[in-house]
Amino acid sequence: MAASVQQSVGGEFRPTEQDKRFIFAAAVAGDGYYVDRIMGQPHFKIRATTDTNTAASSTNFALDLSAEGLTAATGALTSASSGANRYKWRQVQRVGVDDSGNAILIGPKTFLTSQRAVYEATVTAGATPSTTETANCRAPEWFDGAAPVAGAGASGDISVQWLGTNSPVGSIQPISINSTQDGAAAANALAAAWTRNHSLTNGTSDLCLISNETTNADGPLAGVVTAHVDVTPPMSVDLFVNTTPTPDTLLVCLVGIASDVVTWQVDVTIGDPFLAVLV
pTM for the complete prediction? Predict the structure, then answer.
């Protein structure tokens, strides 16, 4: 199987649609293309599979936006939904052209779907989880599987599986770790908390907790620890600027998971969705 197997691409893009008055008039006149624009339907629907994590390139792409008439004057890729196994998200990427008329990416790719994962547990001396507070644990919004759980951990550490089991992720970015202590003495208060040993292959991190308690060098006394971490999916939808032709072209690329078949359903919308209320 090739790195990217395009099963089907449906849809079209018309440069004239940037005038919203024209869109409305054409929709009222019965043009189905512009009715779809008012209803917020995507311009293109990509259905494909991948079985590797080959990076975005001029040979590994699912859709050539330049061939569909996309330029800086006619719009930008502003949202994409991707469903692969149990992953689904929306993202936005601005595009434009430079002084030579070549396609360029403007700013970073931005997720519109929350990446935040939350893990909370009641801990005992040595930072061994006694109870995972499942009601307060939350998986990233793009993942519809299990919430984070505690795996095996050494004394003083809690090993967290952010997707509920060992499962690959794209990145792990710690945001905050908070701890409340049951001990009344100041010596029992948490002195430090951080993450370490991040594994993108397994989607795990160790929470390291240290107490001021002189008799408990391995960790805090009984209390509750809460960790917030941003986690991204292990696959991605990327825009790639192909500099081989003149002018440059803009490609939509699918980057999957190594040695794993990913089934893609990607909706591409160009420009700001046009919404109208008809009274």
Answer: 0.82
Q: Reduce the secondary structure of 44-103 to three states and give it as a string.
A: EEEEEEECCCCCCCCCCCCEECHHHCCCCCCCCEEEEEEEECCEEEEEEEEEEECCCCCE
Q: What is the 3-state secondary structure (H, E, C) of 126-181?
A: CCEEEEECHHHCECCCCECCCCCEECCCCCCEEEEECCCCCCCCCEEEEEEEEEEE
Residue found by looking up tokens 């869109």 in the block: 23
Please classify residue 235 by burial: count the beta carbons closer than 10 Å to its beta carbon, then call 0-12 exposed, 13-18 middle and 19+ buried: buried
Q: For residues 238 and 255, is the Cβ–Cβ distance under 8 A?
A: yes
pLDDT digits (tens, 9 = 90+) for 139-197: 999 998 899 998 765 566 788 999 999 999 999 999 998 877 665 455 555 555 678 89
* DSSP letter, residue 202: T
Residue given tokens 């004239």 in the structure block: 16
User: What is the sign of the dihedral through the CA atoms of 31, 35, 91 and 5?
Assistant: negative
Question: Of the candidates 248, 264, 245, which has an alpha carbon nearest to the alpha carbon of residue 49?
Answer: 264
Peptide bond into 245 cis (omega under 30): no
Strands 77-84 and 262-270: antiparallel
